[in-house]
Give the backbone structure.
Amino acid sequence: MADFLAGLPKAELHLHIEGTLEPQFLLERARKHQIQLKYLSLEEVQKAYQFSNLQSFLDIYYLGMEVLRDASDFHDLAWAYFQKAALQGVAHAEIFLDPQAHISRGISIATVMEGLLGAVARARKELHLSIMLIPCFLRHLDEDSALDALHQCLPYRENIVAFGLDSSELGNPPRKFQKAFAKVRELGFRVTTHAGEEGPPSYICDSLDLLGAERIDHGVRCLEDHQLVERLIRQQIPLTVCPLSNKALKVFPDLSKHPIRKMLNLGLLASIHSDDPAYFGGYIGENYSQCEGLVQLTREELALSARNSIRGSFLGKEEKSRLLEKLRRYCESQQVRLP
Ligand code: HPA
Ligand code: ZN
């Protein structure tokens, strides 16, 4: 099974690059920049990575970013991630970043992008990965701050496929960002938004209707609204589901209670992703393998997730067809039948 999953061609559509900050890397960069962290040992960091909900995670997540100061920090972080992704069968990755979380600390977007894009270029060349960036607006901040971040990202537009919306969901509804996403669309970018992770199903509807979202990140709470489920199936709206994240942030009590299997079998365009793997206990490979083990997904269902991830990506038509063909051939060789 491990070999089958590693070889399964898939797209990573829900990965916050700042969420790949491993405890070891955090301690090492804190030492490099002489930053006093409240943890001294690896064990202390790991102990702090116990969360009760989204906000309890975000508090630690923004603290961790303090150690990302210069371009080499961003480069090394991303390069370590791309190497892991390539080993886990990721053929295409659309990577989230949180520009406002760096700008607000006095780290320029030029520093962030110099590091990240250096790693992206290297991964495209040496690992043959297809990669695009998705800067996200922090929804706990105001719309002017989002618009400022959008403008600061424009010099890097060649590597940006879409803009996203993340951070504290409850109390920060999609309608807060209507102007920002109208501008995003006017500039020709695609739109994907976190919705229905902790927030109600209406945040999913409003993301689609008010922000022009084409894809929904998480979206698991759609299951509470039958009409919405029907719409998501009918319109084949991609849902980027992150089982280990949902477990860590107590969206569901246990992985065995996770609805990913139900979502796949209902015909939703759902797929498995990682969110913040350094904090939630695993990258895309571990998300797939634990779903196999604990949600008892079959090889057909795992391959369906991989196909949905490619279909749900923002790749152009030709690249999508090329990857889907690669997946089809792989499934054939493994005697896995897809509908
Ligand atoms: N939800 C909202 N914001 C985030 C997340 C998440 O899962 N990860 C990083 N920022
Ligand atoms: Zn996320």
